[in-house]
Amino acid sequence: MNDPYETLGVARDASDDTIRKAYRKLAKRHHPDLNPGKPEALEQFKALNTANEILSDPVKRGRFDRGEIDAEGNEKPPERPFYRDAGGAGFGGARQPGGGQYGGAHGLSPEDLEALFGAAFADHADRANVRGRDAQYSLTVDFLDAANGAVRRLTLPDGRTLDVTIPPGLRDGHVLRLKGQGLPGRGNAGPGDALVEISVAPHRFFRREGNDVLLELPVTLKEAVLGASIDVPTVSGKVRLTIPPNSANGAKMRLARRGIAGGNQFVELKVVMPTGPDPALQAFLETWEPANPINPRATLEGSS
Q: 123 pLDDT exceeds 70?
């Protein structure tokens, strides 16, 4: 049975923040959704959740440190004091006047104990009605799912699944609360909630800044010089973009309300030169004289 401190790789005096960061890092690494076909990852993920449930709860952590519960959160049986009566017999052998023994076959039955201590048992039962603890999980979603909203399935350590609704515009690190999907309560109390921390995977060409989306758009030299009308991807589908003539490399254009949650998309032009020899272009440039000559390295002159 693994020690929860060893499972999370933290010291016994680690702060709550250190424990939280260690759990998040390891949970992402061993999450079953990111390790398909690896049963050892699922087992490690289960162990991480169990360790985090103990160490993230100050009460449980204290009880574990004092040896009152084990690494699975189960109660350890208390050590029973051994009493002796005047005759030297142990408590279990203390004689009743009628010759019976307390706790023995001829002593007090469970019904007798309930009749004698019913009020105490009832009070204990009331205190045992405790709401279940919240359970913490992590879920990685695609960039476009976070931007547009989606429903994604989360596999829990015990094999159950939850369908998680991703609202449009969700940010990386946001925690969703799923009511009643946490750990079961005690007695008549209800379960806790599931707290699902969302990690948004990076996109191969979109980048988010606030609710704006940035896109670097490759264009040819001809398109930049003469202008063009081309299809441009956005988080909600392709749109037609007009590139004005004589557009410089690095020029930015805005697509209004094509970002996330009402934000904009900014398109930055990246002029791509031909990959191989182009005799016609070379011949043209050899005789070409720009109408408005510029020194592109003017800012570098005198800097050394």
A: no
